[in-house]
Amino acid sequence: MSSLLRVSGKDVSLVLCGAAGQGVQTVEELLVKAIRHLGYSVFASREYMSRVRGGNNSTEIRFSPWPVRAFVDRIDVLVPLNEGIRENVRRRISSQTLIIGDRNVFHTEGEELGGRYFNVEFLKIASEIGGVVFANFVAAGMLLGMVGGGLEIGYSFCDEKFAPKGQLIVDKNKEALDRGFKIGQTLTEGTLPFICGDSKGRPLHRSVLSGTEALSLGALAGGCTFIAAYPMSPATGVLSFMAQCASQLGVVVEQTEDELAAINMALGAGYAGARAMVTTSGGGFDLMTEGVSLAGIMEVPVVIHVGQRPGPATGMATRTEQGDLHAALYGGHGEFPRAVFAPATLEEAVRIGAKSFYIAEKYHIPVIILTDQYFLNSYYDMTIPDLESLSFPSMIVESEKDYCRYKFSSNGISPRSVPGNGKGLIGADSHEHDEEGHVYEDFDLRKCMVDKRFRKLALMRCEAEEPLFVGAQDYRILIIGWGSTFHVLEEALEFIGHSQVALMHFQQLYPLPASLGERLEQAQNIIVVEGNKTGQFAHLLRQETGRKVDSIITNYNGLQFSVEQVVRELAACLNEGVY
């Protein structure tokens, strides 16, 4: 067994990095397929610079016989394909990190990184095969050799990926895999000594999905029939996924000239009876807020997906943050009810993606789904929920001749019909209106209409999502998070192993469930963890429940939380020096 590799315990953290155009994501895709085929559970997360070409992008792949779901700072194996490794990757290198690179590329940089450097002449081997472009598949083959298998999957991947470029390119990529595979076997003697446990028995039928794919599947399960968007990272992937499914599933997909057109087209589609969606990021949502307000007074159901990234303005266009909660809560002038969701896991993204359409259609409101770059660009193996169970029947009624679109009701929900579905006229206006939808400036009527719309909140609170709960039932210390941080917090909590600590993680941010007060009262110490500067959810929690939190752990450098970071900062809050 080679002494190059260390025993890390439960899992392996492998990081690939290289310039845009060097095929880092292609190698990542191949490795994930091969590792899954060997029976391991896998998690991967990408980070990339806001450039078309150049710079240095990276991807982390964790794999284990046990489920892995979160980002860690630890790097067991680093394979850089070009020089100029970014500082955020350098900081994660330890003396135990195995760095495999080409000295002809790195010169002395590799030895200066602080890990254990091993030289492999990727460029020379690639040139012998036919060009430096094959260096990434030499590296891929080497990693397959280190893992201990998967070469057949690699061949199949080449057949599928490169067939349009001709058989010669397919064969050369296979040759690159072969040459690298032999090197990898030499490094580890064909074994996987740095991971404990047997991969056999892991369910191979589990699918590997990204956050983008999970949310999109959920939207389709919820009956989405129309989506409009102006491309904006990191949310564009949802539009692309829907476009790929459009002809097969009957979804109308429109790439608009700007975000104003996107939201207004979605409102028009919703008014006509479609289950409509828009996907954007924070800057795009800013432009949509007048349309969000229009949805509020017209009571048109619409689902708005906001893939968060750091602001203000363009901020850091390809990085991650949880900074748009206030925008989701208060975007749009005037006062009107809305719902805000933030799925915690990929499995939950499927379910909540579908439920958002149900809530929008039942209450005739805008529903906002908050994700972020880390969530959308991470993926792992999972069992896809039963999509058919997530569908729901239409709530649109046939209108009678005397139909009133905004008829007053005890719960604020009026019967909703659409043009052409019955005998009645379907009123809609951006002005305040009467029950039929006619513009009618009456001060008493205005108050009644506002009260009618807000009566929906009482029922919405009763069926609000209960937060996920992990840890001791008799907790004294309560960790609170929301959205994409769930698996990071869950693993950090497992590491701490504190008998009186629990995690309560929110997937519905507004309205909050009515039963929340008792669980907050039990906690003697509340620590909120969120990816922004000001503790936006902590403020919302106090506003809605009156409970002030004791500590807030924030992260707003553009990078995701890591398990190690959360452990360190929780330990500091708990005065335990765990890390």
Offer a concise description of the structure:
The chain is α/β, with parallel strands linked by helices and 579 residues long.
Can you walk through the features of this model?
- The protein is α/β, with parallel strands linked by helices and 579 residues long.
- It folds into four domains: 12-188, 3-Layer(aba) Sandwich (Pyruvate-ferredoxin Oxidoreductase, domain 3), CATH 3.40.920.10; 209-390, Rossmann fold; 396-463, no CATH class; 468-574, Rossmann fold.
- Helix content is 39%, strand content 18%.
- The protein is built from 21 helices and 20 strands.
- The strands form three sheets. It has an eight-stranded mixed β-sheet with strand order 6-5-4-1-3-2-14-7. A seven-stranded mixed β-sheet has the order 9-8-10-11-13-12-18, sandwiched between helices. Strands 15-17-16-19-20 form a five-stranded mixed β-sheet, sandwiched between helices.
- Strand 2 and strand 3 form a beta hairpin.
- It is globular and about 80 Å long.
Task: Summarize this structure as a short list of keywords or feature phrases.
579 residues, alpha/beta, Pyruvate-ferredoxin Oxidoreductase, domain 3, Rossmann fold, 8-stranded mixed β-sheet, 7-stranded mixed β-sheet, 21 helices, 39% helix
